[in-house]
Write a structure and sequence with these properties.
With 352 residues, the chain is an alpha/beta fold. Helix content is 39%, strand content 21%. It has a 10-stranded mixed sheet, with helices on both faces. A two-stranded antiparallel sheet has the order 4-5.
Amino acid sequence: MHRVTLIPGDGIGPEVTSAARAVVEASGADVAFEPVLAGQEAEKASGTPLPPAVFESIARTKVALKGPTYTPFGGNYRVRVERPNAQGNLEQRSYPSLAITLRKELGLFVNLRPIKNYPNVPSRYDKVDLVIFRENSEDLYIGNERMVDENTAEGIKRITRVASERVARFAFDYMRKVGRKKITVGHKANVMKMTDGLWLKSAQDVAQAYPDIALDQRVVDALCMELVMKPETFDGLLLTNLYGDIISDLAAGLVGGLGVAPGANIGPDCAMFEAVHGTAPDIAGKDIANPTAMILSAVLMLRHLEESQAADRIEAALTAVLAEKRVITRDLGGNAGTRAFTQAIVEKLKSN
């Protein structure tokens, strides 16, 4: 049996993670969930949004399914943790959000974002089916910023060959495993010749070991233009941390928005699967949230656990419910609540 750490999160998090759990359990997957508290409720109870119990659970399970967690805008908000360093000594570290804390502390170096059209999800496009690989550990997101003076701020952009080649190998291995054929690497090497130049060269070097998968490249601004003109022509996108953060949300808009966009953060020792939308506190507890992104994140999790049959059954059941358009959430034009939509998927699983 696969044990999975379940982090309900904040806002609508408990509702959508409950939906995903119900669907996974109805699928026949050999999975047992281990709930742990993180986020605002954990901070109220223990004084920290990320108690040690979260890390202890993930150390046991190696896999987490996480709901959205709250992060304030601006200010000096930091999530502080006391964790062992490379020498095994306890060290205090801090990060700008709970999600980034988990990614950094767990070594989750790649963010995986499938982007795909589903029936009756309003979109300007159809036939979009691509995968985004976002490097998760460096670039401007290392958090090395400072105020030079009261009117000037600066930040360090760090790109290393080790991290760039690591995520490129992951992308090529993934594409080969699922039968995809082309990766497009995004960059701005025409201006940032050293940092993005190294990023592009690293991807090109790795590509030589994968002759069955084509590699092409786009300057990132041109890539954005092409994505909104002809997204169906792209298969896989390999992006640095900042570009990947921006373009993965742009790409979600091509297929209906963040409510249908799953995500995974994967490292050498463990993986965390999470919907990429926010906590939506204005609709929390009202039974109107769309759990599709969380359910699709659970599908990614099951594939990672090699529970492919259960993953296929869930995706087929979800697709069927969306195609029938009888029991769908309000954001998709229906009038079903979170629980009713989830139950429709569960019933579809039971009948097939």
